[in-house]
User: What shape does this take?
Amino acid sequence: MNPTLPIAIIGAGPVGLAAAAHLTERKQPFVVLESGGTVASAIESWQHVKLFSTWQYNLDRAAQRLLESQDEAGNVQWERPRATQLPTGRELIDVYLAPLAAHPAIAPHLRVRHRVTAITRASITGGSFDKTRTTDREAKPFLVRFTAPNGEGELLARAVIDATGTWHSPNPVGRSGIPAVGEAAAREQATVTAPIPDPLGAERARFAGKRILVLGSGHSAATTLIALGRLRQREPSTEILWGIRGIAGANRLFGGGAADELPARGQLGVSLRRLVDSGAATLLEGVSVTALTVEAGSAPHPLTVGLADGRTLQVDLLVPATGFRPDHSITSELRLALDHPTEAPSALGSLIAPEFHSCGTVPAHGAAALAHPDSDFYTVGAKSYGRAPTFLLATGYEQVRSVAAELSGDSEAARAVHLSLPQTGVCSAG
Assistant: This one.
C-alpha cells in the first residue's frame, strides 16, 4: 500500500475529529470528509440539550494536547472548560469541536459538504476491484466516492475510519423494526417530530397546548419528557403521554438514581419518576404501533396511532425517541463482518448487546474489535455500537486512539486499551 496516500476519516463529529488529532500526533496523512456544512452537524440538531456527562468525559486527550499547543508566537489560544461542568450540545461545538476543526493541523485536511456515497477497493492504475475480487486485495487502496458542491468526486485512501454515526438513520416508530403503516406520510406531514425536539425553545409554539405522545424508554425520551413537563407548568393545557413498548420496570425506566456515577444521568430518572408520579405525564405500556393516520384539520387531534392490541390514541404530535441504527449502504462493496443482532462489528457485538450491558460493563476495546475482513477499514464511534444505545464519547476516543496507533504501525499501543466507564447503578436491562 502506498504510504503517501491519506487515511480517510468519514464524519467530522467528536470521534472523527479525535481520530484526526491522534493521526496528527503520529504524523500520518489524513483527510476528513463531512457531509454537513459545518463540523458536528448532527449535534446542531440537538444543540439545546444538556449532556449528562461532564466535560471530563467529552474531551479527547490528543485533541486537548493539540488545542493547548502553542502557536508561532508562543501563545495558547484555547482555554480548557471546567471538567465538572455539563455542556450543552451548542457548547460542545463552540467550546471544543469548532476550535479543534479550525486548528492549523486539521483545518487544511477538512472538507465539509462532502457526502460519501460509496467506498470500495481499486487499483492505483485504475483497474476495477469490487467485493468479489480476492487476490492481492489487501494491497489495493480504498476508493472513496463523494458528492460535493462542485459535483461528484473520488479519492484514494490507504485506510478508512468510518465515524459517520447514526443520527441520520433513526429507528422507525413501527413495531418489530419496520415502519408503521402510514409512517412515511406522517413524517412528511410533520406530525412525527425530530427524535429530540426543542419544546422549550425554538419549537415552543409547536408543542404548547398540544397532546403529545413520546415513544421510547431511553435517555432521549427522558430528556424530551422532562422538557415537556416544564412546558406544561407554563402551558397547563399541554398533555403528555409516554408510550413504552414493553411493561414498565422501575430500574429500566428510571435508572439508578443516586447510585449512578454520572449524577446528571441519575437525576434524569429521578425527575422522570416525579413527572409520572405527579400525574403530569401518563405512562402507557404495550404501545406497539402498527399504523399512523393523519387527518389534517380533524378535531380534536389530527394523528391517530393504531396499536397492535387494538387500542388507538389521538394525539397532535408523536416524538419518536426510539433510538437509531447504522446505515451500511456506503460500504456495500466492502467485506464487512457484522454482528446480526446489533449490526456492530462482529467482534464487538456480543460485548455491547443491550439485553446484557447497561451498567458501564462494556470492556475496553480498540482496533482489533473494530476491524473487518477488508483490512484497514474500521467502524468507530456511535456507528460501531450499531443498534445498542449505550455509547459514550469516552468510548469513541479510546477507539480512535487504538485505531490510529494500529494504522501507524504501533500494534503494541493499539492493543493496550484502557476504558473506565461510569456505572449507571442499574445492573440489569430487564
